[in-house]
Design brief:
Elements lengths: L4 E2 L2 E10 L2 E8 L4 E7 L2 H4 L2 H15 L9 E7 L2 E7 L3 E3 L9 H20 L12 E4 L4 E3 L17 H7 L4 H4 L6 H17 L9 H10 L14 H10 L11 H16 L14 H4 L14 H31 L4 E4 L3 E2 L7 H16 L5 E2 L2 H4 L9 H8 L3 E10 L2 E10 L4 E11 L3 H15 L6 H7 L7 H14 L4 H17 L4 H18 L3 H18 L4 H13 L3 H14 L4 H13 L3 H14 L4 H13 L3 H14 L4 H14 L2 H14 L4 H13 L3 H17 L4 H11 L2 H13 L21 H10 L4
Parallel strand pairs: 10-12, 10-13, 11-13
Antiparallel strand pairs: 1-2, 2-3, 3-4, 4-6, 5-6, 7-8, 8-9, 13-14, 14-15
Helix pairs in contact: 3-6, 3-9, 6-8, 8-9, 12-15, 12-17, 17-18, 17-19, 18-19, 19-20, 19-21, 20-21, 21-22, 21-23, 22-23, 23-24, 23-25, 24-25, 25-26, 25-27, 26-27, 27-28, 27-29, 28-29, 29-30, 29-31, 30-31, 31-32, 32-33
Length: 793
């Protein structure tokens, strides 16, 4: 075909040939560019089913646009023969560079190959034939991975001894050889072999023929890199070995994780150590008196010289002791004192196990928080990274912590496999990693083992009371613990249906273990937020919450979470002094629990003390800087102090942290209404209603604003909806009163506020500070309500 013109392509030279076809260098005469044309063998396109499958995969691969992927331009046909037009890469295949001479070059290639695979996997494309022959190194020393989606066709594996077959077979994952399901983890296996081969020049599995090679891959342990490169980094050895696990569940579950670890080794290998300046450190006396190799002279020994050696040796010992003490001191002073536990990944992708990965994460966070010398990022912040493919190093820098703990969980029957990795953020290195296999029934001991191992690796000595607190197990019943984790999972979803499910799971946990204090706290927390998220009457939910919190404290008087829940209940029931005492008790027991400061701040705000409110919320936001609701309360404190600019800044931050945070938009709108016109406020009020699923709270805000702006028709429609929902038990009378106040109907507003008082609503405690009541604040009935609620004497 050399010299022929096919369609508008002039064939220039043959680049290569293999089992998947012949590749030619060609000139695209229309666009005047050099391209590569790959002609597929007739036997692969004769079958209609195979042809359709090939076209589907090739089209998918053509969607890839990545600097380390050889781009596919088009698929065409000439005289019944299909061909692919793709990017021409000037260079050579990676095969010609094996072994790669410099480790840093090999690591650089590995990162680029991994990034290409990561892009493909993100688009649902599995390469299925990752090998050195399918990887090009161009003239700029950059990687280009070829043949995405084209490699594996049914019936292509044959027990022959042709070089092309053996070359492909040497990179196949066990499940690929055995005819099992092939997915991204199969590419990871092949990728690991490529990395092994780049470093050693060998493959980790070998056989004299295909059958022997297949047996080795499926049944035998891979060779160690250190067998061929004795001084190899143990970390690189560990990474490659993990990628070559027989069971896909034991490998990296995403290529991004493997690339991240290789990148850290690459950074370490490029660090330059400053040479010791001979003027900085005295030379050893033995070195000073050493014979000169060039002159050949040898000084005579003498008793004086020997005495000098001894004295000098003592001096050196003193210097060394000082240096060791110096570094020991600063190593301790610079020890890691902050940690983020990223949400553990449910690597098995079974949605029924999300509660388990989330629950184990939260339990580890709660246990480590009890170490007073360690700052642990709270759940509400780290769970903002859930489901995102992020580099732990980047997350650690963003959260300003010294270390990041990440993990993956896979359930195999009754077994639970957990891979945990601890990253040193400052030094960009892995401190530690381990793999745990436990029966699901032993999940409690698993959590304890991880916490103890992490504490040890962080050089934290757990003794006495701290060790008891960290390893404290609130139940010995594994079934109850798993039910509790499911309750926590649904509680965090914050909607009416999920809260009902959470209550059910906590009840089931208590049925299995009636002494399970944390399960009672879970119940209390559900009942506390039901009025806001489910519209349940406070008169119904808060007494239940209070009883559950009291039960938890009766079982365990040291539970800060239980004191916080009880305090919020007492605040809602207008027992302000009791609530304040309980909030302070919770802080004493656990000064790192941000919810205590947050809820305590609400109490002092309702009393009109906005400066104290601001102080408490600052403490909460220091502990949990990524919490939308705490950012909202920070804005509310400034709103109360009439600092509108700072209020808007924090309200906007709350919706930046969570774009679906409905109440944040309502407070933005309220602040805009105070300083601007409704061209800014009204859209935000409406957005709050939409995002909240038309919650009574947000409807009340919008209806009040409509009333103030004389949109009487709109306000009346909202009134009707809220009144109907009040009768159904899913809205508070307080919201109805708010709309009447906006419309200027003072008597109706007061009537509905009195209903809210009789309902013992959470909202009624806002009377003193809520600007919705400015128009009726001097009314005798309003003053009487304030006194009844105990807000004024």
């Amino acid at each position: 075909m050399i010299g022929q013109t096919i369609s508008h392509y002039k064939i220039l030279e043959k680049l290569g040939e293999g089992g998947m076809g012949v590749v030619y260098k060609a000139q695209d005469t229309k666009l005047d560019r050099i391209v590569a044309l790959k002609f597929l063998p007739h036997h692969l396109t004769a079958n209609e089913a195979e042809q359709a499958r090939f076209l589907q995969e090739a089209k998918a691969a053509a969607t890839l646009n990545h600097p380390h992927v050889c781009t596919i331009y088009r698929i065409d046909e000439f005289e019944g023969q299909q061909f692919i037009e793709m990017e021409y890469v000037e260079g050579e295949t990676l095969r010609h560079r094996i072994p790669v001479k410099k480790l840093n070059d090999a690591l650089g290639y590995a990162v680029q190959i991994g990034e290409a695979l990561q892009e493909a996997h993100a688009r649902g494309i599995v390469h299925r034939d990752v090998k050195c022959e399918n990887i090009m190194v161009n003239t700029k020393n950059q990687i280009k991975v070829m043949d995405f989606g084209l490699a594996k066709l049914k019936g292509s594996l044959k027990l022959t001894r042709t070089s092309s077959t053996v070359g492909t077979l040497a990179y196949m994952a066990p499940e690929q050889i055995q005819g099992g399901e092939v997915d991204a983890r199969s590419d990871i296996f092949s990728y690991g072999i490529v990395v092994f081969e780049m470093v050693t020049g060998k493959t980790p599995f070998r056989g004299e023929h295909d059958a022997a090679m297949m047996y080795s891959i499926v049944n035998e342990e891979p060779d160690a890199i250190s067998k061929y490169v004795p001084d190899v980094s143990p970390e690189l050895e560990r990474i490659v070995r993990r990628s070559l696990e027989k069971d896909p569940d034991d490998r990296y579950q995403s290529v991004a994780d493997m690339v991240s670890e290789i990148r850290r080794i690459q950074k370490q290998s490029t660090r330059v150590s400053r040479p010791v300046n001979r003027m900085d450190v005295p030379a050893s006396p033995m070195a000073q008196e050493r014979p000169s190799a060039e002159s050949g002279s040898v000084p005579a020994a003498s008793s004086r010289a020997m005495k000098n050696y001894v004295v000098g040796g003592i001096g050196i010992a003193v210097v060394l002791a000082s240096v060791i003490a110096y570094f020991a001191f600063f190593r301790t002073a610079g020890a890691i004192d902050s940690l983020a536990v990223l949400p553990f990944v449910n690597a098995g992708s079974d949605p029924q196990l999300e509660y388990l990965s989330d629950g184990i994460t939260e339990s580890i966070i709660n246990s480590l928080t009890r170490i007073r010398s360690l700052r642990v990022i709270p759940r509400s912040t780290v769970f903002r990274f859930k489901g995102k493919d992020l580099d732990p190093q980047d997350v650690g820098n963003k959260l300003n912590v010294g270390a990041v703990l990440s993990g993956k969980i896979v359930k195999n029957g009754d077994d639970l496999d957990v891979q945990v990795d601890l990253i040193d953020v400052k030094n960009q290195s892995q401190l530690w990693g381990d793999h745990y296999t436990r029966k699901l029934a032993s999940v409690l001991s698993l959590q304890e083992d991880i916490v103890n191992d992490v504490s040890r690796e962080l050089k934290i000595s757990l003794t006495g009371e701290t060790k008891r607190d960290v390893n404290k197990q609130y139940t010995q019943n594994s079934g109850a613990y798993q039910l509790y984790l499911q309750g926590q999972y649904y509680w965090n979803k914050r909607n009416a249906v999920s809260l009902d499910r959470a209550v059910d799971y906590f009840d089931q946990a208590i049925a299995l273990d009636s002494t399970y204090a944390l399960a009672y706290v879970g119940l209390a927390d559900c009942f506390i937020i039901q009025p806001q998220y489910a519209g349940i009457s406070t008169k119904i939910s808060i007494p239940k919450a209070r009883a559950a919190a009291q039960k938890a404290l009766a079982l365990d008087p040291s539970l800060a979470e239980a004191y916080t829940a009880l305090a919020f209940c007492d605040y809602t029931l207008w027992k302000y002094e009791d609530a304040e005492r309980e909030f302070k008790e919770a802080i004493e027991l656990n000064p790192k629990y941000p919810t205590t400061y947050h809820w305590y701040g609400i109490l002092v705000a309702r009393m009109g003390d906005y400066n104290h409110y601001l102080t408490l919320v600052r403490q909460a936001i220091d502990l949990d800087p990524y919490s939308p609701v705490i950012a909202l309360n920070m804005g509310a404190a400034y709103f109360g102090l009439e600092n509108n600019d700072e209020a808007l800044r924090y309200f906007r931050k709350s919706v930046e942290l969570d774009p679906s945070f409905a109440v944040g938009y309502a407070w933005i709108a309220a602040t805009e209404a105070r300083v601007k016109d409704d061209s800014d406020a009204l859209p935000n009020f409406r957005k709050a209603v939409e995002l909240s699923g038309r919650s009574s709270e947000c409807l009340g805000y919008l209806g009040h604003y409509d009333g103030v702006k004389k949109r009487t028709g709109e306000a009346k429609l909202i009134l009707t909806e809220l009144q109907d929902r009040y009768q159904a038990g899913t809205a508070a009378a307080y919201s109805v009163a708010r709309v009447y106040a906006g419309m200027g109907d003072k008597e109706s507003a007061l009537d509905w506020l009195e209903k809210d008082y009789r309902d013992q609503s959470t909202w009624i405690t806002s009377l003193l500070t809520d600007h919705a009541w400015d128009s009726i604040r001097s009314e005798p009935r309003f003053v009487d309500l304030e006194q009844k609620v105990g807000l004024v004497k």
